Amino acid sequence: MRTARLRTVHPVLWAGWAALAAGAVLCVLGWYGVSGERFAERQLPYLASCTVPGGALIVAGAVLLTHGRGALAAARVEELYGLLVAVEPGGAEESGTAADAPLAVSGDLLMVPGGTLWHRADCPLVAGKVESVPVDAKLLASGELGPCPICEPVEETD
To answer: Which among 28, 61, 86, 122 counts the fewest CB atoms within 10 Å?
Structure first.
């Protein structure tokens, strides 16, 4: 479920696009006015009244767009964080599992090629992934692989 803030375009984004459009129009008008005048002293009013403010509006629009996109990204992160930490009331008590129970209890160890961690076979990070392979004893013995912080596997000794 998305929040209403994310469904609507942030007002700062609208202001940024409006400033960019107005700046572009002013720059075009300034260029058109300058191109029609032969002498530099008659071109200066167009530069001062159209081109310089148009450039300033383009810069302001770019700043507003950057800020608006940052605010929108922050709102999305907040929504995702809310979904991540949302807990259904009574969910742990009804299922009969303790909140501090490990997520995975399998004794088989798996790894992802090129990864730096080893996992239990039923760890949510590798469960059902076709690219996960059994842990190589050489990598485990050399210390190149570390334990997964999610499933907290116990290092097996041979």
So the answer is: 86
